[in-house]
């Protein structure tokens, strides 16, 4: 029964909320150049933590806490169920038709109308003893339910923040690694260009040119691998924190 209440109140909160539910968008990293990757700067952790409150996991826990808060307010007003009011009101035009006659007057009908209104008001009291003695306990139980929902929300929030910290630290490390491998790739490219000229001039053998080409390929492979790992971490960080990292 309580699960049904959760669903109904949760849907009500979602439909009456002024904040629309928007699908998470991830930055398009395919449009980034190597220079863009070298200029990546992560937002402060405080910004990521605050934006993470838009994470569906946190919002779901927050909705549950809001439902429990409304149920607590309902339990506090439960005593009003012991009382009932009733009333009615009538308004209309009433007609009266009659016939008059005596020994000297022929019978003739008469008809009269009159506007009238009326109302009734009443009240009643019905106090089931079981509900009366359980009233305070129900409020206490609902307070515990609210406290449990709020703690669950904080636990979910802490889990999200831990994931953000983990991905943040990983991305920070991968940015530095990518910068180093970018520098290594630049040096490998320069060395290969020099080797090509030397080979064309006949100052080195083909095996030396092949060796420098292999080094260039290894540097490119290492760079692309680091870029892949960094891109994956940044995309996961965007999803968890609901924060765009790249703005283009």
Automatic annotation (TrEMBL):
GO terms for molecular function: efflux transmembrane transporter activity; porin activity. The keyword Secreted does not apply. It comes from the Bacteria. Its main location: membrane. Residues 1-23 form the signal peptide. GO terms for cellular component: cell outer membrane; efflux pump complex. Keywords: Cell outer membrane, Membrane, Signal, Transmembrane, Transmembrane beta strand, Transport. It is found in: Cell outer membrane. Belongs to the outer membrane factor (OMF) (TC 1.B.17) family. This is Outer membrane protein. It comes from Bacteroides finegoldii.
């Amino acid at each position: 029964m309580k699960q049904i209440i959760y669903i109904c109140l949760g849907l009500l909160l979602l439909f009456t909320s002024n904040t629309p539910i928007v699908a998470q968008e991830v930055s398009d990293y395919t449009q980034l150049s190597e220079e863009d990757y070298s200029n990546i700067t992560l937002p402060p952790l405080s910004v990521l933590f605050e934006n993470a409150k838009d994470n569906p996991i946190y919002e779901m826990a927050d909705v549950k806490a809001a439902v429990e808060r409304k149920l607590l307010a309902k339990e506090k007003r439960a005593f009003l169920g012991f009382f009932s009011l009733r009333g009615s009101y009538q308004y209309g035009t009433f007609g009266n038709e009659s016939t008059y006659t005596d020994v000297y007057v022929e019978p003739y009908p008469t008809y009269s109308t009159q506007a009238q209104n009326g109302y009734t008001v009443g009240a009643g009291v019905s106090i089931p003893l079981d509900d009366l003695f359980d009233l305070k306990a129900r409020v206490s139980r609902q307070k515990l339910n609210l406290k449990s929902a709020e703690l669950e929300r904080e636990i979910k929030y802490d889990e999200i923040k831990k994931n953000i910290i983990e991905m943040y630290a990983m991305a920070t490390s991968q940015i530095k690694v990518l910068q180093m491998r970018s520098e290594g790739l630049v040096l490998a490219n320069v060395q290969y260009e020099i080797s090509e000229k030397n080979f064309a001039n006949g100052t080195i053998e083909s095996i030396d040119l092949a060796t420098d080409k292999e080094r260039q390929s290894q540097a490119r492979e290492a760079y692309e691998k680091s870029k892949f790992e960094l891109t994956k971490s940044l995309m996961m960080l965007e999803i968890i924190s609901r924060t765009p990292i790249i703005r283009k």
